[in-house]
Structures are given as C-alpha cells and as structure tokens.
Amino acid sequence: GRYRDYIAWLQRQDQDAAGRFWKEQLAELDAPTRLMQALAGQVKPVADGYGDHYQLFDAEQTRRLDAFARAQRVTLNTLVQSAWLLLLQRYTGQETVCFGATVAGRPMELSGIEQQIGLFINTLPVICRPRADLSVGDWVAMVQERNLALREYEHTPLFEVQRWAGQGGESLFDSLLVFENYPVSEALEQGAPAGLRFGEVVSREQTNYPLTLAVNMGETLTIHYSYDRLHLDAVAVERLATHWRNLLEAICQDANRSLGELPLLDRSERDLLLARWDQTGEDYPSRPFVHQLVAEQARRAPEAIAVLFGEQRLSYGELDSQANRLAQRLVELGVGPEVRVAIAMRRSAEIMVAFLAVLKAGGAYVPLDIAYPAERLRYMLEDCGAALVLTQRDVLERLPLPAGLASLAVDDPGEWQDRPEGAPEVDLAEENLAYVIYTSGSTGLPKGVAVSHGPLVSHIRATGERYETSPADCELHFMSFAFDGAHEGWMHPLINGARVLVRDDSIWLPEETYAQMHRHGVTIGVFPPVYLQQLAEHAERDGNPPPVRVYCFGGDAVPQASYELAWESLRPDYLFNGYGPTETVVTPLLWKARPQDPCGAAYAPIGTLLGRRRAYVLGADLDLLPLGLAGELYLGGEGVARGYLDRPALTAERFVPDPYGNGERVYRSGDLTRARADGLVDYLGRVDHQVKIRGFRIELGEIEARLLEQECVREAVVLAAD
Ligand code: AMP
Ligand code: MG
Fold first, then answer.
1. Which residues contact 495 (CB under 8 A, 6 or more apart)?
2. Mean pLDDT, each 10-residue run in order, the chain (722 residues)
3. What spacing in Å lies between the alpha carbon of 319 and ligand 2's midpoint?
4. How far is the CA of 486 from the centre of ligand 2 (A)?
5. 420 neighbors 325 (Cβ within 8 angstroms)
6. What distance in Å separates the CA atoms of residue 155 and residue 22, rounded to the nearest whole number?
7. Is the beta carbon of 209 within 6 A of some atom in ligand 1?
8. Backbone angle region of 169, left / alpha / beta, with phi > 0 → left and psi within -120 to 50 → alpha
9. What values do phi and psi take at 78, rounded to 5?
C-alpha cells in the first residue's frame, strides 16, 4: 500500500518544472566533467578492481570545519562539495564542472516514508561554475542553494537528466560524493538489549563510477575514497585528496578571499615545483655575442670550412672577413644599434655573410622569405621600419620596395668588397636587437618579434651544448630563414667550428636530401615533422641511412608514428624534438631522445628546458598546477623576446608579469602542456586557434580578419582541414 502511495506521489509531481530546472542547469555545462581524463597522464591503468583511501580529520580539524560551516550558515556537506567543485575545476580546466551527489530520495511529505523498506536513493549532477572573482562566502552560499534547489527535483531519474544533456551517452560526471550521516553502530545500539555492544560494523559499497567519495561525519570527519584501478592509483588518489584538503582548509580560513586566490598546492609542493622549473641560474653567459663567437672560431681555425652551398665553399676566414667588409659598408650607410636591416635574398653562401655583417655592424636583421606574396613582403618591409634592405641584383628587380627604402645588392662587388677587413668597432648592449622575425597575427596582419643579443647568445650556447656540436659536425640547413629555428640552425654550428650545408631555393625531394646528406657527411639535420616523416619513409624504402648523428623535429607537434618510424629507418644516435614560440627565442624546450625512449603519447614530449629559463604550467587563473595536470605553458627567464616590434599593447597582452617571480615577464605560449613526473613535458595542443601548416604558423583569425574586410562578408570562420 505504501509503495502505491509513493507511485501516486511521483505522478503528482510537476514533470515539466523538473524538466525546466534540469535543462536550465545543463545549459551552463559545456561538456561532461572529465576528471579521469585529466588524471590519465599520471596513472598506469590496471584491471584490478577497486582501491581504497581513507582521509581522517582529527577532532580539532573537524571542529574548525564545523565552526566555519555554522558561521556561514551552510552544512558541512556544502563545504565538502564546495571544495570538491573547485578541485574539479582546477584539475580539468573546465569552467563549469559537476559531480554526482547521492540523495536520499524519500519524499518527506509522504507519511510513513521513513519506515518504508526499499532503495530510494538517486544520483544527480551538481553543476556549478566557480568564478575566480567570487568570494568564498558567496561561493559556499551558492553551492548550498544549488543543493536545496536540487532537492525539489531529486526524484528525477538520472537517465532523464542524461538524456536532456544529450552528450551521446557519456556520463555527465565521473566522480560521486555520498554524504553519510548515519552513525551505524550507535543506531544499532539504540534498540538493542542492555549490555549488547556493536563493535566494528563493516559495510561494502561500490558504485559504477571511477571515483566515489563517501563523506562520513561521526565524531570526526572521514572521507573514504573508493577508486577504480582502471583510472586511478594510490599515488594519484592520495595527491588528489591532499589537494582537496588544501582547498577545503583554505576555504575555511577566510570567507572574504576570492576563489582565484585559494591554493591547490601547499607551500612545500609549490616551492618544489617552482625550483624544479627554474634554470635561470645556469651558466650560459650573454656575452660575447654570436657574431663575436663566430669571429673567435675564424681566428682559431681560419682554413676550416664554414659554409657549403652547391659547389661553393666559404672558410671561416673568408666568411668572417667578407662579413667584416660588408659590415664596414653598412656602418657607413648608418647601420648601428637598433637599426633594422631587411634581408631579402636567395638562399646562398652570401646570405650567411649578410646575416653576420648586419650583426657585426650592430644592427638587427629582418629575414624575409622572397617566396612570400609581394603584398606581404611590402607590408613587412614597411612595418619593420628598415633603414636598408640587403638583397641580390636579380631579386631586387622583383622586390616590392616601399618608396624611399634604400637597398644594397650584396652580389654587386663594387658595393663593399674593397672595404677594410677588420670588424667595425660598435658599442652593443645585451638588450640591443639582434633580429626581428615575423609571425602571423590574429588581427589580420603579421607582427614582428624582436629578439636581443643577450638572450640569443645564451640560448645558442645552451643549444650547442645539448647537440654536442663540434668541428666534426656538418649541419644541413634546410629551413626557411623566415623562421627563427633557421638562425639557431647556422649559429650553433658556427660558434662551435662546424660546417653548414645550405640548401638552395628548391625544396629538395627526400631523394635529393638523402643524397646530399650522404655526399657531405651531414651529421645534424633539422626538419619540420612532416618533412622528416617523408625522409623516414624514403629511408624505409631505400635502406642505407646517411651517417646523421642527430635528427631534430622542429616547429610542430610530432606524431608518435613519425617518431617511431624515424628511429627505425633513419637510425641516428639521437632524435630531438625542438619546441618553441618565436617569442621565447627559438627553442626553450628541447627533447633529446635516445633510441629506447618511448614516445608515450599521441605527440612526442617536448623535453626539458634549455638554458637560463623558467617555466610554469598554469591554470586559467594563473594558478600553479601540480605535475601531471594539463595547463597553459608560460615561459620566462632569460629566453624571452623584447616584445613585438612597435606593438606595446599586444606585447603587454602576451608578455605578462611573472605571477611567481621577481618583476620579470613571462610569455603566454597558448600551448597546452603537462609536466610529467619524470621531468619531461608533454605537448597536448593549443588553447586557441593557431595552427601549423607545413611548419608555417598561422592564426586562423588573421585569415578571418582579412575575409571580414570584404564588404560582402558578414561572418567568417576558418578551419584547418587535412
Ligand atoms: P613558431 O613561433 O613559428 O615557432 O611557432 C610556435 C608554435 O608552434 C608553438 O607555440 C607550438 O604551438 C608549435 N610548436 C613548435 N614546436 C613544437 C613541437 N616540437 N611540438 C609541438 N608544437 C610545437
Ligand atoms: Mg619555434
């Protein structure tokens, strides 16, 4: 009879109101909360049932929590949930998060329901968006309110809510919170004959969720974490429990603090992380500068070959003295510190002379790829404020020179070759510009990244050390000079006495590259991942790999298959993966993999910091994330560009004050990464709409902005398709 009463009660409930309530809640949720996915990077799954972890609060701690709950007029359950929601947000990086709350499900207005036998409990999503600027007091009040509101509709079957959510059957949440406030043994003792005592009451409960927190409030607070070993392990759960507790304790300290200020990490974990990611104390001096180090090599071994191009050879002595003569001429033309000189030349031996000459004259070069569309070239020539463009006679004919811009054809012997052989005397500071490199800009026009001498040479020294570059090396120079990687590519060989084999203007087929590497005994080859993949495929067919010591993937994510194929078919000593935005001086991180090193993920790891640098993996509110969690990579220390040329607002937006440092700036990379326990960093993807196409960095927004300039276009979306 009572059961029939319950069914009748259910039918009396306003189903439409329930539907409205849940749909409103669900509208706030962009996606299911994927805590297990966030933890996947740190757990080795095993199919071995469930594990347990118990977290105990002592009497004093429990009293403090209780007192805070009372002061805020919320339940302890609410505090526990408030901290859990924050943890979910920090861990997953999702703005709106949810977990499953188990509710009793017995409608209080139905008389006798307390005596009714049967399982009424239901599990429902608690959906919240903990905004960083919310105060703790407002936050816990909001969670409490949400709980009360949910009570009205707690009979709604979970499968209905799931159906309304329409997430293709994926569960809205993967963690469950069960608040148990039934002190079992006391309850049993109440009706028992005198003298009968109940000792250990053991109950086993298991849900089909990967993680269940059973919150038990007896005399003291206990949390029982029950976890599926397919998703979690003891270490991960313990760490998670500690982080949750840190948040809970921070909540109870001060109701006026804003949520963004509550630390996930305690001081010791934070200090450890900060120390681990700080390499600024390393010894890579920012003087002498790159061109001075090359000159030292030229003094040491003037006969040694520095540059190979086709049949042409330049010894260190020739390279250095030609660069000196050209530099003398540049100084006459007014080049000096902070003066920009555009370089628009065919790939050649002279282009190497030109780069060095500009540096020796104290100026900064702006390398332009002459294959770019004329309109883009003209824009860059104007935007960089060049005083002069270095070019070649045939290139000059088709160069879109802005009016009034002076030019010098390097292959015009009368122009500079009779100048004195010594380097000009120039007073150059570490902060002076060395080069400006253009990258795509989301406002519709490319922007120049300005890099100075100190950070550059410090980086190049560190690079040479990791490559173990020596006079025995020959680097194949393959990449377009419009990329900063191409400059690292000649600089570290030339400060270390090695040779540089410069590709000509044709894009070599893998066969050609292969043959050249054999012919010249190339030992170092750096390629965009798509090209290295093709080279590896060629090697797979051809066998007979060239004697290359190091292959480096550079500038784009490296798929696992490419990484593995490169080992198998090219068989070098090392495979490198070079990572870095132009804004952080070529490659702040570089992975030096040995033959047995596994890729371990969809993309190859980007390795460890290089040189005097510092890094942070941060959440949306600049909160420091623990190891293993995905967040945006911020890069600081010495290897940071001076900024975007003549764009202070944009510079301020991307180069932000170091939230953990001493007045330094850090660059927001826009890259989603994860710091691993073994010290490597995993690359996961972008947080914005920047893509790479055959190594070219493209802001899809740049193309959208240009489309929107057309009168007939009202809205535009650009996607990168395969
Ligand atoms: P760029 O300034 O042209 O060097 O482009 C920098 C961007 O390219 C980075 O912010 C990443 O998004 C991407 N990138 C560069 N190197 C790598 C790499 N090794 N793995 C994954 N992404 C990379
Ligand atoms: Mg780069």
1. 290, 293, 294, 297, 460, 461, 464
2. 82 88 93 95 88 96 96 96 98 96 85 83 94 97 94 90 87 93 69 78 80 92 95 95 97 96 95 94 96 98 98 98 98 98 97 98 97 95 97 96 95 91 96 97 92 98 98 97 96 98 95 96 96 96 95 95 97 98 98 95 96 95 93 96 97 95 92 94 93 87 92 93 82
3. 27
4. 9
5. yes
6. 12
7. no
8. left
9. -65, -40
Q: 605 in ligand 1 pocket by Cβ < 6 Å?
A: no
What is the rounded CA–CA span in Å between residue 131 and residue 129?
6
Of the candidates 564, 279, 585, the residue with the CA atom closest to the CA atom of residue 435: 585
Alpha helices in 46-152 (DSSP H): 59-71, 76-92, 136-152
pLDDT at res. 482: 94
State residue 204's pLDDT score.
72
* DSSP assignment string, 279-335: -TTS---S-S-HHHHHHHHHHH-TTSEEEEETTEEEEHHHHHHHHHHHHHHHHHTT-
**Best residue among 552, 553, 576, 579 to mutate for probing ligand 1, ranked by most atoms within 8 Å of CB:** 579
Question: In this structure, are residues 632 and 646 in contact, taking their beta carbons and an 8 Å threshold?
Answer: no
- For ligand 1, whether the C-beta of 228 sits within 6 Å is no
Answer whether 306 contacts ligand 1 (Cβ < 6 A). no
Residues in the chain: 722
Identify the CA nearest to 318 among candidates 294, 334, 293, 344. Answer: 294
Contact 489, 495 (CB under 8 A): no
Cβ-based neighbour number of residue 37 at 10 Å: 14
Report which protein residue has its CA nearest ligand 1's atom 20.
Answer: 557
The closest-lying atom of ligand 1 relative to the alpha carbon of residue 604 is 20
Place of tokens 């002190």: 183
Instruction: Please give the number of the atom of ligand 1 that sits closest to the Cα of 589.
Output: 19
Q: Check residue 514 and report its DSSP letter.
A: H
CA dist 613 and 619 (Å) reads 20
Question: How high is the pLDDT of residue 430?
Answer: 98
